[in-house]
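Entry 14. Structure prediction run on the chain below.
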Amino acid sequence: MRLTTLTAAAALALVSISTSLSGQRPDDQINPRSMALLQQGEAARAAGQLDRAAGLIETALVVDPRNRQAFNVLAEIARARGLPGQSIRLYREALALEPTDLRALRGQGEALVAKGAMVKAQENLAKIRKLCGNDCTDATALAAAISKGPPATATAQQSVTPAQAPAATPAKP
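Output returned:
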């Protein structure tokens, strides 16, 4: 009786594992419809139609959420719109799919610089250098962005602390 129960449990576990593994697709098998939408979105971005491009690429991600290139392009659009926080989140999604994606590591590092998060940008640079060395273009570009530093608005926002902020004057009764 015990042996039958253990055998049945093992068989059920084996079937569950094999079913879940067969349902997953490798990164290189992205849905062709998603890739077509991505190409349309990139064309719209090149034409300066950022809203249309973002809509097409978001649709590409709905069609196939494993489309890492779509996350990268959408993150680049967010950076072009001046939204480094959203860009960082989108690059994180791409890196969750492929942790060694140099394009995502570089883009996220540059967005981190724009937010003034220099330590985290340095961490991304170290990852890139570990993957491709000092001579690759991604490492060179991120190193240049780090040496240039964050924009003045990012450093100004970090330098004002709540204690330094002007206090609100209480309303007189």
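Residues 42 and 73 are 8 Å apart (CA to CA).
Filed with the rest of this week's runs.
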